[in-house]
Amino acid sequence: MASSLTCAGIIWAFLSFICAAASCVGFFMPYWLLGSQLEKSVSFGTFRRCSYPVRDESRQTTVMVEQCGRYASFQAIPSAEWRICTVVTGLGCGLLLLVALTALMGCCVSELISRTVGRVAGGIQFLGG
């Protein structure tokens, strides 16, 4: 398999993939903020949460659901700032993955990545970061 990348380009491609994967894992994991509520350990991220309170209407009390899950809808995310963070971080992860996968394909396909395409990919990667 011929490559259109130099040695530095191949290193860039693999580091880009590792960083994009780490960013996506960080985005999907619900451990951004840790704390306790109702004597239970809780954590949440931009669109996932673990051990969260739910109002039990039949007993008129608040109970803790001790499991991890996504918010029921986009509007269920606690604040507008968290919604914006979810969208911006998700778009950034998507851009990073797009560039990383394109760069990895450039390791296997000759003439896929030219100097101009590499510069544009670097700009997209900067924007995604």
UniProtKB/TrEMBL annotation:
Family annotation (InterPro entries): LHFPL
GO cellular component, one term: membrane
Compartment(s) where it occurs, according to its Swiss-Prot or TrEMBL record: Membrane
Gene3D superfamilies the record matches: 1.20.140.150
Superkingdom of origin organism: Eukaryota
Pfam families: L_HMGIC_fpl (PF10242)
Segments traversing the membrane: 12-34, 87-109
Tagged with keyword Transmembrane: yes
UniProt main location, coarse: membrane
Record membrane topology: Multi-pass membrane protein
Record's keyword terms, sorted: Membrane, Transmembrane, Transmembrane helix
Protein name listed in UniProt: Lipoma HMGIC fusion partner
